[in-house]
Specification:
By secondary structure, this protein is α+β, with helices and mostly antiparallel strands. The chain has nine helices and 48 strands. The longest helix is centred in the last third of the chain and has 32 residues. The N terminus and C terminus are likely disordered.
């Protein structure tokens, strides 16, 4: 009893510590991106209000911002506007965007004498570029529009339904990638299944198979069926499991005994499949304001449309429709053709999370926009290295419909384009004259890469970009398409839906999968996987190649433990908490997996650790930037495209004229952040960037003003633009506040999100 009490106290203390730590971290992060920001030195002070975005092209952001300036000669703050361009360094782990390499391209101060214009402009345009400003990713997203080019890039996905297994018992789907491939273990007389991420071992003499999942053991003489739970496996099997799991991944399963444990049933599949598991007979509850019912006793997303009597099931972002749950005759439904009531699901509903997969909803728009934001990095050309191992001599196959060939007998994405070879490794492009190297960092990407169709297993590399370079570094980035998140008809999908044939020779190299692992979308962290009964159920052993199933992001659990702890704390409960709180925070930055060459990513300069297989982490950061501070006052000052400055309060809009705020409109500000409109589309390159680096000079237009916008806009159009900006700012601030508050409240995520079977290791199985 004392030991149990001691364990409880230790876990409680750890939980309280982590809760406090995350709370402090959230406060720190929140403080970093509060606006307005203040920059000051001995010559004066510049107060910058939240930027109003004009465009995002590649990793270059163009924006304008209202500013107020005080110098030693000018004691009262003077309001004006500045236009600037900068690089963005995104940090999806903290949902922050750092504005770096700022270049002030124009500034305007309407209320000062001509003799002071040059001095004031020079002060702003000289001082601001010395600083790096931080804003939340959600503030950035709220100010951008959906890019139509990005919507078209994912056409051609395969949306045919996989096998959907309906069961009313606690169950787990065990996926084997094709016919089982057996290899010898270090223990004579025992073999393991190579082509699965699960621990499956065979006693050759007895011809019995064994599976370990969580705290449970199973055995069967037929690998496809009739699995039975056993209390104690043979000693040799248990020893193999302990050795394999300890060496390969570590056993992150729960050790405590359940009062009433539920032993799940196993379904073994060698082709793509998904599990629709219900806890007994289906139970339903109505969704307020709609003619929809949702199934309450399942961790799947199942809706029932009363009007049509059809069931709708959401899998990997795709909707499937059927008149029966158990007939396995599901039909794909496009996200813009689901019943209208799907878009009317209230935000506080148990099923609000599915709206990210309903085209036209704000949740879907947010997801689509986020899918356009790149994770960026600055990579050293001289320090980044690459080695490619092949299973035998390099073997290439043509990508159908293109002139490109790709290497089939390696875990890396190696392309042959003309006489050159290119490899995309952890979101950095390399090139060589020979498939065996030597490899060097590439400063451009052939435009042919954009022709790769989704039928190819290397389709995802088209979402990795080279933006710019200098003789020392290359500026690179990737959008979520690289980690298999694609946009289709106004919603986000996981995976292409195609089955890719793996390579098996002396080594086994799996390819990315879409189905079989209960993929769900989380707006804060992207896609997460589940094993239905418990995300900790899957015990990986022997499988350094398991990394290949999940692609560059690795395996990222998306749920709490399910039936393992009783249904009320089950999978959807964990998913809902993750949806609203962002608690399932894995490592979203692939560049942190690199062991060398990354100079900056996530907003910070870093030193790589060659000895660390997981690449650079936060302890290796070099903090070398000037840090602005929070300025006094509200973040309610804006500038129009002509450089006039406005302030919004409860009474409406006021304009800064002759040092005073004069009322110009009685129009009330938006009462709540319900929509996220914006201004300019975010654009990703569809062709390779120029091979020459951009100098982006910070030249000031004559007479202090910018030619970006014509001054002939009437007052109505001007106020429409300001209202859009204000609405977007409010919406982004609300999303940021919700994320930070929820994150600090959630404390510890026991599901171990972010763990990566195979995590920075080569994806090759042993023979």
């Amino acid at each position: 009893m004392k030991e149990i009490l001691r364990t409880v106290i230790l876990r409680l203390n750890f939980f309280l510590f982590m809760t406090c730590f995350l709370g402090v971290l959230a406060v720190k992060v929140h403080a970093q991106n509060e606006w307005p920001r203040k920059i000051e030195n001995n010559n004066g002070t510049v107060t910058i209000y939240q930027p109003q975005l004009e465009s995002l092209t590649n990793d270059i952001l163009e924006a304008r911002a209202a500013v107020s300036v005080k110098t030693n000669e000018i004691k009262s703050p003077l309001f004006g506007a500045m236009w600037f361009s900068c690089r963005i360094s995104t940090d999806r782990d903290e949902r922050l965007v750092t504005l770096i390499d700022i270049r002030v391209t124009a500034s305007k101060f309407p209320d000062i004498d001509q003799e002071n214009i040059d001095e004031l402009n020079a002060f702003v345009e000289t001082e601001v570029p010395k600083w790096e400003l931080v804003m939340s990713l959600d503030q950035l997203l709220a100010s951008l529009e959906i890019n139509e080019t990005a919507l078209k890039q994912s056409e051609g996905l395969n949306n045919e339904p996989p096998e959907i297994i309906y069961t009313m018992k606690p169950s787990v789907l065990v996926y084997i990638d094709g016919e089982p491939i057996m290899e010898d273990t270090d223990e004579p007389g025992y073999q393991y299944v190579v082509n699965t991420p699960f621990f499956i071992v065979k006693d050759v003499k007895a011809e019995n198979f064994y599976i370990k999942g969580g705290n449970y053991w199973y055995t069967s003489v037929d690998i496809r069926k009739d699995w039975k739970n056993i209390e104690k496996p043979p000693k040799q099997i248990k020893t193999l499991a302990e050795k394999a799991i300890t060496e390969e991944e570590g056993d992150d399963t729960e050790n405590e005994k359940e009062e009433n444990p539920v032993v799940p049933e196993l379904f073994i599949r060698t082709t793509p499949a998904e599990l629709l598991m219900v806890d007994g007979d289906p139970d339903y509850a109505p969704i307020e304001g709609t003619s929809l019912l949702y199934m309450t006793n399942t961790d799947s997303d199942v809706l029932m449309d009363i009007n049509s009597q059809f069931y709708y099931l959401l899998i990997a972002g795709r909707w499937y429709q059927s008149a029966s749950l158990d007939a396995n005759d599901w039909k794909f439904i496009k996200p813009d053709e689901v019943p209208d009531d799907f878009a009317r699901i209230p935000s506080g509903s148990e099923m609000a999370g599915v709206k990210a997969s309903v085209a036209g909803t704000q949740e879907a728009k947010d997801a689509v926009i986020e899918n356009q934001i790149p994770q960026t990095a600055e990579v050293s050309i001289s320090e980044a290295t690459l080695e490619v191992d092949y299973d035998g001599k390099p073997k290439f196959e043509v990508i159908e419909g293109t002139s490109i060939k790709y290497a089939v007998n390696t875990d890396k994405s190696v392309l042959q384009i003309g006489a050159k070879y290119y490899c995309c490794d952890n979101a950095v492009w390399f090139e060589a004259d020979d498939p065996n190297g030597p490899w060097q960092v590439s400063v451009s990407v052939p435009s042919d890469v954009q022709d790769i169709p989704p039928e190819s297993p290397v389709y995802n590399v088209k979402y990795v970009y080279v933006y710019d370079y200098t003789p020392q570094v290359v500026y690179v980035g990737y959008t979520p398409g690289y980690v298999h998140s694609y946009v289709y008809r106004g919603a986000v999908y996981y995976g292409t839906g195609y089955y890719y044939r793996p390579w098996y020779g002396a080594y086994y190299y799996p390819r990315p999968v879409t189905y079989g692992f209960g993929v769900h979308y989380n707006p804060w962290t992207g896609w997460g996987f589940s094993m239905t009964v418990s995300n900790g159920w899957m015990t990986v052993g022997y499988h350094s190649h398991a990394y290949g199933y999940w692609g560059p992001a690795g395996y990222r659990p998306g749920y709490h433990h399910g039936y393992h702890r009783g249904y009320q704390q089950g999978a959807r409960a964990g998913y809902r908490a993750g949806y609203y709180a962002g608690q399932n925070r894995g490592n979203n930055n692939i560049y942190r997996n690199r062991t060398n060459g990354v100079k900056r990513t996530g907003g910070d300069r870093v030193n790589s650790r060659p000895a660390n297989p997981k690449g650079p982490d936060r302890s290796t950061r070099i903090e070398n930037r000037n840090v602005s501070t929070k300025a006094k006052g509200k973040n309610n000052v804006y500038t129009d495209r002509d450089g006039n400055v406005y302030r919004q309060d409860k009474s409406g809009w006021q304009k800064q004229e002759n040092g005073k705020w004069n009322e110009v409109s009685r129009e009330k500000p938006p009462s709540r952040a319900s929509q996220g409109p914006s201004q300019k589309p975010a654009q990703q390159p569809t062709q390779r960037p120029s091979q020459q680096p951009s100098n982006r000079p910070a030249t000031r237009p004559a007479q202090q003003t910018s030619n970006r916008a014509g001054s002939s806009k009437n007052q109505s159009t001007r106020m429409e633009g300001l209202n859009r900006d204000a609405k977007a700012r409010n919406y982004g601030s609300q999303r940021t506040q919700n994320y930070n508050q929820s994150r600090s409240n959630q404390g510890v995520n026991r599901s171990g999100a972010g763990s990566r079977p195979g995590g920075g290791r080569p994806a090759g199985g042993r023979r």
